[in-house]
Amino acid sequence: MAGPDVVDLGFARVDVDREARQGLPEVIYGSGKTPEQISGIVRTLLRHNDGPVLATRVDDDVATSVLAAVPDGAYDREARLLVWRPAASLGFGVVVAVAGTADLPVAREAAAVAAATGLDVTTVTDVGVAGLHRLLAEQDRLRAADTVIVVAGMEGALASAVGGLVACPVVAVPTSTGYGAGLEGVTALLAMHASCAAGITVVNIDSGFGAAMAAFRLARVARRRTP
Amino acid sequence: MAGPDVVDLGFARVDVDREARQGLPEVIYGSGKTPEQISGIVRTLLRHNDGPVLATRVDDDVATSVLAAVPDGAYDREARLLVWRPAASLGFGVVVAVAGTADLPVAREAAAVAAATGLDVTTVTDVGVAGLHRLLAEQDRLRAADTVIVVAGMEGALASAVGGLVACPVVAVPTSTGYGAGLEGVTALLAMHASCAAGITVVNIDSGFGAAMAAFRLARVARRRTP
Amino acid sequence: MAGPDVVDLGFARVDVDREARQGLPEVIYGSGKTPEQISGIVRTLLRHNDGPVLATRVDDDVATSVLAAVPDGAYDREARLLVWRPAASLGFGVVVAVAGTADLPVAREAAAVAAATGLDVTTVTDVGVAGLHRLLAEQDRLRAADTVIVVAGMEGALASAVGGLVACPVVAVPTSTGYGAGLEGVTALLAMHASCAAGITVVNIDSGFGAAMAAFRLARVARRRTP
Amino acid sequence: MAGPDVVDLGFARVDVDREARQGLPEVIYGSGKTPEQISGIVRTLLRHNDGPVLATRVDDDVATSVLAAVPDGAYDREARLLVWRPAASLGFGVVVAVAGTADLPVAREAAAVAAATGLDVTTVTDVGVAGLHRLLAEQDRLRAADTVIVVAGMEGALASAVGGLVACPVVAVPTSTGYGAGLEGVTALLAMHASCAAGITVVNIDSGFGAAMAAFRLARVARRRTP
Amino acid sequence: MAGPDVVDLGFARVDVDREARQGLPEVIYGSGKTPEQISGIVRTLLRHNDGPVLATRVDDDVATSVLAAVPDGAYDREARLLVWRPAASLGFGVVVAVAGTADLPVAREAAAVAAATGLDVTTVTDVGVAGLHRLLAEQDRLRAADTVIVVAGMEGALASAVGGLVACPVVAVPTSTGYGAGLEGVTALLAMHASCAAGITVVNIDSGFGAAMAAFRLARVARRRTP
Amino acid sequence: MAGPDVVDLGFARVDVDREARQGLPEVIYGSGKTPEQISGIVRTLLRHNDGPVLATRVDDDVATSVLAAVPDGAYDREARLLVWRPAASLGFGVVVAVAGTADLPVAREAAAVAAATGLDVTTVTDVGVAGLHRLLAEQDRLRAADTVIVVAGMEGALASAVGGLVACPVVAVPTSTGYGAGLEGVTALLAMHASCAAGITVVNIDSGFGAAMAAFRLARVARRRTP
Amino acid sequence: MAGPDVVDLGFARVDVDREARQGLPEVIYGSGKTPEQISGIVRTLLRHNDGPVLATRVDDDVATSVLAAVPDGAYDREARLLVWRPAASLGFGVVVAVAGTADLPVAREAAAVAAATGLDVTTVTDVGVAGLHRLLAEQDRLRAADTVIVVAGMEGALASAVGGLVACPVVAVPTSTGYGAGLEGVTALLAMHASCAAGITVVNIDSGFGAAMAAFRLARVARRRTP
Amino acid sequence: MAGPDVVDLGFARVDVDREARQGLPEVIYGSGKTPEQISGIVRTLLRHNDGPVLATRVDDDVATSVLAAVPDGAYDREARLLVWRPAASLGFGVVVAVAGTADLPVAREAAAVAAATGLDVTTVTDVGVAGLHRLLAEQDRLRAADTVIVVAGMEGALASAVGGLVACPVVAVPTSTGYGAGLEGVTALLAMHASCAAGITVVNIDSGFGAAMAAFRLARVARRRTP
């Protein structure tokens, strides 16, 4: 019941054509899947594709089981990411700018996914706008980036500040950190959209993965245009 | 039907005791009131009190009628404020920091009300966080203030940035400028509350008046404590 | 009261350093500004910069007055955009994909701003997902783009569909078209964030301008990397 | 205290007239009920009606107890459904189209309830709009349906796409899958209502049951009109 | 730039294949379109299709201009609907049940669109649940319907009551009537989804058109199944 | 630090004047309080007042401890209510009308609090509007009431229906039952306010206590007026 | 098509049985109705009932036309109310307590409707909680009431304060006065529900009419119980 | 990678310049941090600063570990606060006014943080507006304060009442106590902003810490101005 581009595993129909279409195999969203399901999809993707295979939001114990079943993978506990066949460097520099300590888990997902897909990642932490001197001290590194991923919760103001400092693309990730008026990240998401800095773009709350994929799309178009 | 502290004008019962209780006569909210109603309340307040008498949110034509009926007042068109008997200086310095041009009407209400009640007001404009160099160029003036009123719409990030730069009280006014995700000022209000800068406080959307009154309360307590 | 990078016109403090910092002079948000204010800022930007000067959200009659005062500009009525010194082509192809007729005003702002800043723009209309054959008929053009700007209101589903069809960056603009459950664009904004397509990014409701500026940032980084 | 149409069990008053009125006995909402309560209601319904008796949202251990007390029933663990006396086929074809793996539990409730009431159900999985080729590959099956139930979370775009592909009734079920901007299914619900596809209808978040009952109403009216 | 199924008029790309695909030509959403645009699309649809051609949300003066340009149409002022070539009866009975007087404009759009597409429509008014005797007096007519469209604002309770009275499909249209807590129809929309009556479905706020199209889909499937 | 009307227990300052002021001693909100705290307040209230003493939202184990410490009280497990010195009948009849089984816990709190304060309570269950015949079968009992308390979740339509059937005061309690679009009771609360039945009033979500106290206020005013 | 209790005027079906059922003829909601429609309904109600006939939300010019067509009525411009045959006093005292001047229009609707249905109404103005001395000065009048209607916008705190001062029923009306965080009355509505005062009830935003009808229900039950 | 003002601990970059900039070392937000992380930051702050070092939101067991690692600190269990080197008195009087028992945890955080930074704190409990006599009994203490911190959940009305009673600054803290319409503190936050009392300011939901820091800013400016 599945065409040549789709492998039907019963519990999922795996899109093995995506690498050809979008330059990267389908990425597995691990949350809610059993080790057996993840292992099955990973094997399928490894067999039908050539590029990196990733599973996000994988907890420690699930990761151990999957790695036992499908060898040669690596687990990044802080990023909750499993990776097989990480990509070679595309020579595209991404800086992940993180507002506060509480935003680190999301930042690590962004950094690890970006690195696994071939981007060159640097992380800059604790640069929230309530301490502008710490942000300004990082200006040179930010300006040298091909793309900046801003990870910030609470009021999300870091996106506006970075947007005004750099000329390159800025992808903002609102996080669900903070409490009360932060509304689990909704306030940061809305604030980043209402930002006074022109041309910054936004992905879903806590979606380090989404930001990394947006950066990967950028890297590909930049690369395509390089003779 | 009103005690000694209240003068009943039929259409309103004027609280003439507030000056004694809070150091300032009742302020008239002009929106929706006729020139005759405003004039009547102004006369009552002038007669029963000694301090400044203010009417906010008064449009041009209403102001002209009221000033004709109750002489010796002054009208600030940009602030939409009518003032009689402005207060002498309390020697308390307030800086009104304004994110963008669209926030100016609210900033002017804050500045004019603060000045009429005896505060020494300076206004600093176009210091939104998307142009940090403009904000940083004003650091000295901000740090010299006894209180900073931050007026900002869109994502309201200026409040966090100023909160981190100065040690004095910061009163943030979200404005309803911007469109879409700004949600008529609700996003800025929530973002200012979720701010990563400790100890900043917030007043209602577009309430330049509220911020000025908060600053006036501060000035009084600072003055009371001065030998 | 303004450093060398800022020209103080009294009613505004113009950031004349932005061209150096971000590759493009400050863009004027025309809504709520008088013809005199817009003309003053345009003259300042033309004098202190070399690149294109733009004013967005300018109505017909205001545009006529401004063009009389500052010659050599051009007005695009459908986009409500004024442009002086449009940029030469950067050789970066942007396709603006529009869901329905009601989304056209926002799409035109995106297209006109992008063109004025040097991007090569094609517009594809009436490709909403309720008529997939019309969308699929445009696949080749979409896949040839360096970046796709998706403009869609109502449920915003076009962003997901395009995100799955192309490998390049996708910038989604939710619009306030539709009624009822569309909540003036908030539903489309949220839906685009919750999208099942990985790596698409989103800008503010109705912000054709924001999407164009995001594309301009992409074009610059792609160009920088081209030998 | 109950008329002939109502059987009062103390903890509930069972509507035994519904089969006559609406063609199907009352369906038991199992969540929060004890095995004894469910068993009591099931027995009452079996005794006073002739048609199928269903209990939804029943967990594994509760199901075991109820089946021990009231024999001849069957439990579908994935759908969390208990069924006695399933209906004979009405010859009405329903396709349940499912966007992603995470939507499967809701889809299974829809499919199992529909099947138990006599509908002929086919399920089509992993047809989210970010992979249009997988959806288009199923066009023939979708077009052959008498009704399509679309189960989709996140941005819910599948409803619009299917609504444009088929001529038959489309009942959309938003699910609470996804995170952040998905707002626990509210975004999908609103998006499905704002859909650009004409004539699709929507039921409550996660209500596979509601969609199945809507399809059953359709099947009955189609059947009534068949000579 | 348009395939054989699409006629490109410059300002719109008309989908002339929809009649073949869905049994009805594309319906024109008149709001925001000029008489010339509407006339152009109508002519195109009349030429390339055989069925009824409809334009909704058309104001009085626009209608007059369009009818002058494209003869043989009819305008229903209360429904704000223009119709050419109304369909012959499909023998499918729809009752439009209306809660209160304020809901009538939406009800009339539903009734007129349904009638133009070949459904047999009866309207029942003033049957809000605060006067149950008026609703119960209409029971027989409601039960004889093949489908009931419920149009109700405020708290939308009529949908639940009708859902419990009839066995046929119920399509509920929340309206934006009422004030305060009605939240412009959002309360009714949510309430109809949370309804305790099983199997009722809901369309967008004020979308009489959407309800009629849902009924048309039902009529087609019922007809298809009739020998 | 407390006047004669207030007894300061350290962890709470008990208002022992309320019985004189409002005809009933302060009622203890048990949630979050230790058995020792509840016992202390109960003893104080028993000593300084003559009327009934109540503690709401008390769990089973806490109740056992409190009753051991302060004898002569009674615990109603279903209502989670502790009562000492229940009031004699005021001869005022209250009917608690309950939409569905899931609303019973809230209804029981309403009924038990009302009974403890001297009201004559009857409970009518399973009268949701999706089964109007069950509601209509109870008309006589409802019309004989001095006040009806309506307890309903989901869409809350029962309040409108009862409001139209009876002439006496109707107090509606929205409950947090249901899922999805019910928004934890917010939908029912809004819907009850938007109701088409004139003169019904509403209390907080799940506040059986609030409804009982509203009924008690009614009973007192009715009694006061009885010679 | 209407039973004996309903008079069908074509544009409305008038419920002439309501007086018998609820002690008061149906009240006409004037907003959006033509003078002819209002006159027609008024005549019908006058003919088939004996009690007072009311039309609310009627503007000045409409009122003039209606009074010309149906003599012997009276118009209260401030309350926007038309009344024929006002009721004799029921001897039931209602105090309308108004927070501020801006709340007066809603308060006047409440007072005028209550008076027309036979209640004895007193209005107390300018008693917002920011000036507690003005509220406390009215304690005796408030405590003498059979029912207090509290009309308050902004934060709605007056309801809590009055609820704690009096023992009689309190019906709170949130108003849409104020700006920003007041959210057009939604904040006051929610705040009144979350009130710390036990047993106060709430009606819809700006519904002076709803509060008056709630008081009328109370007066009837109090009267019924008076020998 | 950190300038002289920042100490990089790997897991955090500590801002040791804040004491110079804002008069108080950085305060540690303990939630989510391990004892080792907290101990490390505390040691750094103690070494590089002279003033008080605080860690908020620290649970019992974490506190024990931290105190074992970094001696000479003190733990306030009710406030969940760790303090080293508490400040000497600044002679600035703060009254924390608490509406109800459930608001005490937030009030204790406010009081303990304020005391540790050198403010003279008094707490006044159980003064919610539903019992105005308890509030009025505390008027003298409230009026003697240099600043009042109001801690209130539910409808948050205490802020308005206190704002009208005192002339000094009022900082309002909405709390997430209550249920239903309280919306986890959002209702109180909005209501405090919409307050009819002029010049009160608001901090984030449950942020006793934020209110204390706002008071500390006030105390510093008052002190600075004292000769």
Automatic annotation (TrEMBL), chains A, B, C, D, E, F, G, H:
- Please provide an example of a Pfam family that matches this protein in its UniProt record: AIRC
Citing just one GO molecular function, the answer is: hydrolase activity
Residue span, PurE domain: 94-224
A Gene Ontology biological process term? 'de novo' IMP biosynthetic process
Which named protein is this?
PurE domain-containing protein
Annotated organism of origin: Saccharothrix texasensis
